[in-house]
Amino acid sequence: MTVNFSELLEAFEFVNSGGGGENTAYLCKETGKIYWHSDWADDVEELPDDVEDSGRYIPSRTSANSISANRWC
Predict the structure, then answer these.
(1) Which of 46, 55, 67, 68 is the most buried (most CB within 10 A)?
(2) What is the pTM of this model?
(3) Contact assessment for residue 35 and residue 28, using Cβ atoms and an 8 Å cutoff
């Protein structure tokens, strides 16, 4: 898969801008497309029905205690 670095960085910053897991981004392993989700705003586009499938998507989120929970880096 090919991922645009600036899109990856933007998603990383988005995820880390929220407190305690409010923002999540999902990276599709097949296409490299990033899907965004926030607990505080409507999604820009609808998340895929299978977004929780760890075989297909990698979630990037923070925990309340640490940004080390981010799995993309």
Answers:
(1) 67
(2) 0.76
(3) yes
